[in-house]
């Protein structure tokens, strides 16, 4: 499996503070079946002032530590990039990395407030030749009143990345509801761990793959953690990547659950 969103590097953001914890996370990832992890620390102006050059240097050093520890995990360079003005220009200037040098950019919306002109900002990145991969929409507190926006963005060409643990309830019932709904409606391109620590937020991807397989079948689950992530590493255009399941495909009949009754159709 390929994990394209992981806060694995020590002491660079709100991920692990020590090398020992980073190495423990890497061992967990390998034991889980992950062969490649993109190191994606936050780039958040005013809070985490990481740059492509700094992340590349940190990844190079951590590769040496993995080799010395005998941990067979391949690493790539990326960033969990906060939505900010002039982001496309920062990418062009080489200050902000895309995912492993590809056209795909891991894009983090604000967690608690819907940003003004969010869809227009994402579309602007696409007109600059990037493919925004929006991180963990199911965990955003404002998804209830803006759910349709994410479907529209998928139709326009943006990608969606769910956190694997959301599908298994690690973040609670509410993110699980939205994760399952997005998955069932064919709005999800990839799963990733978004791991920050080996205990509270471990780098486990297999559980998300298995949860997805139960809902959509083994073939689509493989696309979520292998085929489409590999296409990003190969920098394939979206048209050359296995398509999403049909959006709005019929769901299995059954009584609506508590979270469906609570949130309903936005």
From TrEMBL:
EC number(s) per entry: 3.1.3.48
Catalysed reactions listed for this entry: O-phospho-L-tyrosyl-[protein] + H2O = L-tyrosyl-[protein] + phosphate
Protein's recorded name: protein-tyrosine-phosphatase
PANTHER family tied to this protein: TYROSINE-PROTEIN PHOSPHATASE YWQE (PTHR39181)
Matching Gene3D superfamilies: Metal-dependent hydrolases
UniProtKB keywords: Hydrolase
SUPFAM superfamilies recorded: PHP domain-like
Pfam families listed in its UniProt record: CpsB_CapC (PF19567)
Family: Belongs to the metallo-dependent hydrolases superfamily. CpsB/CapC family.
Listed InterPro entries: Caps_polysacc_synth_CpsB/CapC, Pol/histidinol_Pase-like
């Amino acid at each position: 499996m390929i994990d394209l969103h992981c806060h694995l590097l020590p002491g660079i953001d709100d991920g692990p503070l020590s090398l020992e914890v980073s190495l423990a996370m890497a061992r967990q990832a390998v034991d889980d079946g992950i062969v490649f992890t993109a190191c994606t620390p936050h780039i958040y102006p005013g809070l985490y002032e990481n740059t492509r050059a700094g992340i590349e240097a940190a990844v190079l050093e951590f590769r040496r530590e993995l080799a010395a520890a005998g941990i067979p995990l391949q690493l790539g360079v990326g960033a969990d990039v906060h939505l900010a003005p002039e982001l496309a220009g920062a990418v062009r200037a080489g200050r902000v990395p895309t995912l492993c040098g590809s056209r795909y950019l891991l894009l983090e919306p604000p967690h608690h407030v819907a940003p003004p002109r969010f869809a227009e900002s994402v579309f602007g990145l696409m007109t600059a030749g990037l493919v925004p991969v929006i991180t963990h929409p199911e965990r955003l507190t404002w998804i209830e009143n803006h759910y349709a926006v994410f479907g529209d963005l998928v139709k326009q060409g943006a990608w969606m990345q769910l956190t694997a643990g959301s599908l298994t309830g690690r973040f609670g019932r509410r993110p699980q509801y939205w994760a399952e709904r997005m998955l069932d409606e064919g709005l999800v391109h990839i799963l990733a761990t978004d791991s920050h620590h080996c205990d509270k937020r471990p780098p486990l991807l297999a559980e998300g793959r298995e949860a997805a397989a139960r809902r959509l079948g083994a073939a689509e689950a493989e696309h979520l953690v292998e085929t489409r992530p590999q296409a990003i590493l190969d920098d394939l255009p979206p048209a050359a990547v296995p398509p999403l399941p049909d959006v709005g495909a019929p769901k299995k009949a059954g009584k609506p659950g508590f979270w469906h009754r609570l949130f309903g159709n936005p």
